[in-house]
């Protein structure tokens, strides 16, 4: 049985890792962890984007609504891309290039994406709270 199959078949993470480590050792393999900076970089990027949004959206209710949408749409990943639609960024603009109206750095700058997202939510739903209410009723905005 392969290590990957063992990992898929066992639900408990600790048990899976123990079983995989034993199986790997028996097969003469060594298990190595993924680089820690990969997960940390993503968490750092999300934290930075959230901090920027907090500064741009001082009202707590509006920030919370915006945050809920972004969490559901992209997980606060500035580079999130929907493989089926091509929607891009924190707020999943479709097409992503629409965000160029907020800045030429729309592909990489969370502030630019947040600015565009806020303008979109205000224009279409009146506010992030209005957008979140729509999202909750429809599963999209």
Task: Give me some keywords for this one.
2 domains; single chain; 60% helix; 141 residues; disordered N terminus; mainly alpha
Question: Which secondary structure elements does this structure contain, and how are they paired or packed?
Answer:
Layout: H1 3-9, H2 13-26, H3 36-56, H4 60-74, H5 110-125, H6 128-138
Helix pairs in contact: 1-2, 3-5, 4-6, 5-6
Plain-language structure description:
This protein is mostly helical. The protein has 2 domains: 1-32, no CATH class; 37-138. The chain has 6 helices and no strands. The chain has helices at residues 3-9, 13-26, 36-56, 60-74, 110-125, 128-138. Helix 3 (36-56) packs across helix 5 (110-125) and helix 5 (110-125) packs across helix 6 (128-138). The protein is globular and about 25 Å long. The N and C termini lie far apart (45 Å).
Give a short summary of the structure.
This protein has 141 residues and is mainly α. It has helices spanning 3-9, 13-26, 36-56, 60-74, 110-125, 128-138.
Uncertain regions: pLDDT < 50 for 5+ in a row? 1-39
Q: Which word captures the global form?
A: globular
Instruction: Give the helix/strand class.
Output: mainly alpha
Share of residues in helices: 55-70%
Please state roughly what percent of the residues sit in beta strands, choosing from under 5%, 5-15%, 15-25%, 25-35%, 35-45% or over 45%.
under 5%
Instruction: Describe the sheet with the most strands.
Output: none
**Number of beta-strand segments:** 0
**Which series of helices and strands comes N to C?**
HHHHHH
Rg (C-alpha, Å):
20 Å
Total separate domains? 2
